[in-house]
């Protein structure tokens, strides 16, 4: 089965969020299961491109409104990522360093989608399925089925995966002229709230749409930035499939970024050694429970309540708890955390920025990972923590509800709370501190977590099973 994954991000080429992790792993595991999956993404002038070799496999011109643009399809020559990687390069439009935030961003992704369709159309390809990811690729299903230019592609199934339903990529009707020739009787399939909405269009036009967890599929009917009724109407087409993690990368026994390697049988000694090294670096005590936060310091992640919650917890537990924060984001939150570190240098450490190697070390050395997210479609951090025997402390939302069971319930291994509030977070921290004192229970939970399967192998099978329902049997 020939599958094209179409995405704005893909790890390790260009990563802004979890979208990149999914697109960088899912095709690899699908290929290991016998599929023929490839990734198509925009060209970015980044380290990966300079350090690897690409062949130009196609070149052409197309129209973006009245503007004639030249494009190239570049293929990475070695398939070193476990799948074929294609990048679409457009001089002056898709040849920049950053993924987002350019003033002509909508033109960039619109051109990306058109060039992809022109390439597979003109080169005579007929993939078995096109899998689109987030609003940057949301117009592809509509154009495949309702543009006269792509009639040959109209029978190809499409799946659209929503990684974050808060972002729609919407724009006004004044830009309709930028689209290729379309059936104007079908423009209602582009429309939502008075404008052209790529995410809404993809939900309407794709054969199936998926979300990155079952619970998030339900939450979109309650909170999706104005698309709630659409998700209610199109609910029969929706499937929730939990993201996986790349267990080749996230393996505490082989991870090159983990100083002290460990496995299921050596988790106690391994985590303690990593914790000691981590605490030594940040002037913390390895004898106390270490509670960490890794991620963007933004409201969506609940980071705005972290300073007050940490302050109250230190007041309650005195010198018997440590916190380590790794992240960057809102300036006021960063400053509040830095001030907290200055007031409690022996109990709180803060690293403003992001360091992939340090993140891996923290997962391996921490006792608890705190995720007070307001929105978390799936979440990967809690899966990394589980894989490394670090107990997740999470708010019950989105994929966090699907992947973390409270240790007070049968088969549980984490700590869950309901509200993004100082009271709920500090109560959960109290539970974590009490649990830490029960060494035997901690070891049982760690081993239980590390034996769970949240791999992409499991998730890839669910996607492949969904594909099979859409593709006619020969």
Biggest sheet statistics: 9 strands, mixed
- Classify the beta-strand content into a percent band: 15-25%
Number of folding domains? 2
Output the CATH homologous superfamily of the largest domain.
Glycogen Phosphorylase B
Going across the major beta sheet, what is the strand order? 3-4-5-2-1-6-7-10-11
Count of extended strands: 17
User: What is the end-to-end distance?
Assistant: 12 Å
CATH topology of the largest domain: Rossmann fold
Q: What helical percentage do the residues reach? A: 25-40%
Quick check: average pLDDT?
Answer: 96
Count up the helices. Answer: 16
| Rg | 23 Å
Report on this structure.
The chain contains 16 helices and 17 strands. About 35% of the residues lie in helices and about 20% in strands. It has 2 domains: about 260 residues, Glycogen Phosphorylase B (Rossmann fold); about 190 residues, Rossmann fold, CATH 3.40.50.2000. It starts with a strand and ends with a helix. With about 475 residues, it is α/β, with parallel strands linked by helices. The chain is elongated, with a radius of gyration of 23 Å. The strands form 3 sheets. Strands 3-4-5-2-1-6-7-10-11 form a 9-stranded mixed beta sheet, sandwiched between helices. Strands 14-13-12-15-16-17 form a 6-stranded parallel beta sheet, sandwiched between helices. A two-stranded antiparallel ribbon has the order 8-9. Helix 4 links the parallel strand 6 and strand 7. GO terms for molecular function: alpha-1,4-glucan glucosyltransferase (ADP-glucose donor) activity; alpha-1,4-glucan glucosyltransferase (UDP-glucose donor) activity.
